Amino acid sequence: MTTLGTDAIVVGGGVIGCSIGYHLAKAGVNTTILERGEVGMAASNAASGILSSLFGNPTDPYTRLVNSSLEMFHELGPELAEASGVDIELVQCGELELALSEEEAQMLHSAVVEGGWRSSEAQWLDAEAVRDKEPMLSDRIAGGIFMPEVCRVNNQRLSAAYARAAERLGATVREHTEVIGMVRSGLRISGVRLHSEELLADHVVIAAGPWSGIIAEKLGSYVPVRPVRGVNLNLQPVGRSIGTVIHGGWGLLVPRNDGSVIAGATVEEADYDDRVTAGAVQDIMSMSELLVPSLRDARLNWALAGLRPGSPDDAPMMGAVPGWQGLHVATGHYRSGILLSAITGKLMAEHIAGEKPELIEHFSPTRFRGA
Question: Are 25 and 169 in contact, with CB atoms under 8 Å apart?
Fold first, then answer.
């Protein structure tokens, strides 16, 4: 059976696919989002929800991409709440980058003084000032850098907000719908094949995370993306919680509006194995207790693993898939899918409309040709 009548199909209902669907629908494009499971329940569900800035060469494409997306969220939060009825819990809470030793404290302090830190608004805090800001921190903390511009969102609400807002703008969202192939006409992709039907469209966007490369490979195209497992825990402190994002060593602690804390996150080359392992939980808890000792007594609400899409340079791939007309890709966002979802949706919608946004050209999958 063949179904006609849509302008664009987005393959993948994670935060990237749903943002693309939302921005396309917002631009008046008749859009269908296809998700083989449930919307936002893969890597997007297991993320931390941090929105950070980058300080460096203002003309660097990745710096521009990150900072543009962070800026978008300040308007996007209330926009999505109105459009979808979902509060993404956007909070500008700031982040503390902690020094776990005197040697590390000297290094971080020098970086701030010399203007070499990743935040233009970074402030050095000595050990006493750090604990004044976050009283639950360990006495072993030697100081830290505070970055006031850092925000957080509830990543588990963000995908749902994009999807629901897209639906209210006329998009169709189909869950439990697996794409098994593409409809081809010469060198043009004109739709997708499902188990029981074909859906036709002028444009198809592959936004299937680490599975995007597999889909492209079936067409003879090279989209080099790999799965990188990340485990996060949700902890409910017994007493007082934290108020800022805390980063120390490889560990991250992110407060939630309900008083819980996201603790993570591992970075594991584990192929397509999305299990939460006992070792990962133990490693995260050890690091969490090093930063905030009272978390040892916290209740473990949940543990989740997600397969992040990593590219060879850990930057996203966006734009046309080489060799095909009507086929596009948005993947490879690695650990920054939540943060980059806003700008990715906007750029991909402009790209599909034929506007050729300059910034997207730097992230074409063609940069890996011959790799």
Answer: yes
